[in-house]
Design brief:
Strand content: 15-25%
Largest sheet: 5 strands, parallel
Bound molecules: guanosine-5'-monophosphate
Radius of gyration: 16 Å
Number of strands: 9
Order of helices and strands: EHEEEHEEHEHEHHEH
Helix content: 40-55%
Number of helices: 7
Distance between the termini: 17 Å
Shape: globular
Length: about 190
Amino acid sequence: MVNFITISAPSGSGKTTLCKALQVVEPDIQWSISYTTREKRDTEEDGVDYHFISSDKFEDFIINGYFVEWENVHGYYYGTSLKSLNNAIHENKMLLLEMDVKGSMNIKKLYPEKTFSIFIIPPSIEHLRDRLKNRGTDSAKRIEVRLKRFQEEMEFQNKFDYVMVNENLESAKIELKNKVRKLKQGETNGA
Ligand code: 5GP
């Protein structure tokens, strides 16, 4: 059984919107709440979107083996607790993990039979730049950092079980929902 659906995408590619829409139509799928040292955005809630913690605490967690995986993304730490994955396996639950490409690859490597990895790409880099600008949460400098990472992340796409293009938000919502429903029904072999 697939317990873990990892979703990776360059930030600004509509991933969070798509994941939130999926949660509404598939409420029994649990959302893995990552830990991060990034500052909270106005639209976010601690304990809902992320567990926002200090770098010192994060480093303590690393030392104590609390994370199944962690990465430094755009200069901040992001990590997933091992316990939440173990719980999902024991309770036979499906967990949705939104993470960077390396995080997805790590989870896939650790739990090959239990993981299905999805990569969402925006139609083009120009499109992505526009979205990041319109979102208005990042400075011009941070947008450039994210775009550079975008180029790097695109190289990982063929390592994923399923790649989808977010050309049109409504169609992408349907595509993601259908894919997840098929996984719930037992499909495990990619596109
Ligand atoms: P943002 O700051 O835009 O919320 O997230 C930045 C990046 O960190 C995104 O690619 C997001 O998917 C990734 N991320 C969030 N949580 C985790 C996690 O627990 N592990 C890893 N490896 N990446 C994460």
